[in-house]
Amino acid sequence: MRPLFHPAIEDVRPEAILYALSDPERATIFAQIAGVGSSGTCSALSSLGERVIPKSSLSQHVKVLRESGLIRCERRGVEMSNHSRCSEVDGRFPGLIAAILTAYGRDTGDGASG
């Protein structure tokens, strides 16, 4: 199985973060992962309110979030465990994630928004 790509925090670009969070569904998924505090499995993220996200769409959203540097993913058997990199990103770009999620009216639950 191929290893997953995770950019080093020094390589994370603000335009990649802006692109990743420009999609409202991805912003919601990211807010859920960040709000969990440690880990969010893909199966736990498969619904947005009443709507169920198809696995293929969810996989693509998670890939964009991971490659932008917003989350770190680990394979655990057949599940993928997703962890927020809010503190790392906030150290590099203070207030960026909070400003974006506040504009959407979402909260990360870890103090990164507001």
In words, what does this structure look like?
This protein has helices spanning 14-20, 24-36, 55-68, 86-92, 96-104, and strands at 40-41, 47-48, 51-52, 71-76, 79-84. The strands form 2 sheets. Strands 1-5-4 form a 3-stranded antiparallel β-sheet. Helices cover 44% and strands 16% of the residues. The chain has a single domain (12-104), classed as Arc Repressor Mutant, subunit A (Orthogonal Bundle), CATH 1.10.10. It contains 5 helices and 5 strands. With 114 residues, the protein is of the alpha+beta class.
**Separation of termini?**
39 Å
Helix segment count? 5
Strand content: 15-25%
The CATH C-level class name: Mainly Alpha
What is the topology, as strand order, of the major beta sheet?
Answer: 1-5-4
Q: What best-fitting shape do the alpha-carbon axes yield?
A: globular
Instruction: Please name the CATH architecture.
Output: Orthogonal Bundle
Helix share of residues? Answer: 40-55%
* Element pattern in H and E: HHEEEHEEHH
In CATH, the homologous superfamily goes by the name Winged helix-like DNA-binding domain superfamily/Winged helix DNA-binding domain
Going by helix content, strand content and strand pairing, the class is: alpha+beta
The overall strand count is 5
GO molecular function, one term: DNA-binding transcription factor activity
Pfam families: HTH_20
Protein name: ArsR family transcriptional regulator
Domain HTH arsR-type: 16-98
